[in-house]
Amino acid sequence: MPESLIALVALCLLGALALAWREQLAAREQAIACARRLCAEAGLQLLDQSVALGRLRLVRDSGGPVLERHYSFEVSLDGKDRHRAGVRLRGGRLAGFSLPVAAGVT
Q1: 57 strand-pairing partners
Q2: Parallel, antiparallel, or unpaired: how do β-strands 45-46 and 93-98 relate?
Q3: Residue 67's beta-bridge partner residues?
Q4: Would 105 be classed as within a structural domain?
Q5: How many structural domains does the chain have?
Q6: Separation in Å, CA 76 to CA 4, 41, 87
Q7: Structural domain includes residue 48
Q8: Among the listed residues 56, 65, 66, the one whose alpha carbon sits nearest the alpha carbon of residue 93
Q9: With contact defined as beta carbons under 8 Å apart, do 82 and 74 qualify?
Q10: What is the pTM of this model?
Q11: Which is deepest, 15, 42, 69, 96, by most CB within 10 Å?
């Protein structure tokens, strides 16, 4: 293979990697925004102001295959406790979430 072709392939792979990294960072920021909004609506405190990617998979949606990302984070009901919570993004949109329920709330 000519050196110029090898360089072109390497450049294309590097570009694809950069685009994937950028998309992952944008999805993480979206997950943080969703977690903040959900916590504010539920009266919870988002701890550490961050989320962690727990699962990444390809799923079939009505428009075809999309990436589904599961993020976990920790919240507090009263500032003294820690509970796990999570959001699920499918194709950049909120597809589901889980939040703790305060004791005594039905």
Answers
A1: 68
A2: unpaired
A3: 58
A4: no
A5: 1
A6: 56, 14, 16
A7: yes
A8: 66
A9: yes
A10: 0.83
A11: 69
